[in-house]
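Request: Could I get any protein with tokenized structure?
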Amino acid sequence: MGMSEQIEQTTLRIASLPGDGIGPEVNAEALKVLSAAVEAEGVKLDVAEQLIGGIAIDATGSPLPERTLDAVRSADAVLLGAVGGPKWDDSEVRPEAGLLALRRELGVFANLRPVAVPAGAEGASPLRPGVVAGTDMLIVRELTGGIYFGEPAGISEETGVRTGINTMRYDEEEIRRVARVAFRQAEQRRGHVTSVDKANVLAVSRLWREVVTAVHADEFPHVALEHLYVDNAAMQLVRRPTDFDVVVTGNLFGDILSDLAATLPGSLGMLPSASVGGRAGLFEPVHGSAPDIAGSGRANPCAAILSAAMLLDDIGRPQLGNVVRESVASVLAEGLSTPDVGGKLTTSELGDAIAERVIARLSEVAA
């Protein structure tokens, strides 16, 4: 996936879509750190910044304008800030429609959400430190199928009674390709996949379980596999989060479980994500646009910066991605952070500190 075959290129083309609320603030810091990482290796960052979401609706009437699509089509990777906000709650065209259209344009079908609780940060979690200490999991959510896209769907009225219908639908190939993503990720981690379904009730989940089991047996027998029903999985994510390595599940269950797991570190400002499997990857923080703090300098840029680290992994430069992650961890370990995790730095000050740490670490390596 991504452009790993192009790792020798000297220019990295990024479509930067800052979006709404705090999106522009955190995206700016992610680009600052990304630039520090790649330029140390002689790679030039070529950034095309375009509109998406609510601000795009205000300017053009569309949440994903044609100029934005043009930038995305010529990019090696897409860095997204956030979309939406109360301003557009009653809008006929929703900002989130731009995000769904962007995913379709890129052809990304697997959403990767790492959830980790760094050493020394356990106190920020709503759970007991002893429960969350050492948590390091990756949730792989199928992104383009399932009940959010299945047909028939809608609200109909017959004999004066309205009925709402949604259809959960997966075919074998949709399941197979996301299962392969999960197993390949596990090969690079601790070698364990938990597949989550509701096979005791849903026919689509029985197919899911059969296909995941077959992919495991045929292609990845060296990776451990377990199956959990989604209700039990939700309980176990809270009871024993350190037992999970890679979790793979469908769109609806993944939407819910990834947000549940996102509470473990105590701040959404720490959690990145990547949507992969298409021509280029889409990298964005898990948090929303947080319009209540937009412009205040209080937004935590770490999720956006860690999303940039995932971008570096995807383009075939995982060593740079690791340097960014190590730099974030070391800066936070020194107590340098934004107010959401007990610090006093502004968004840009924290971004500066991390970028400087990246440059210093790369200088040490070069020496």
About this structure: DSSP finds twelve helices and twelve strands in the chain.
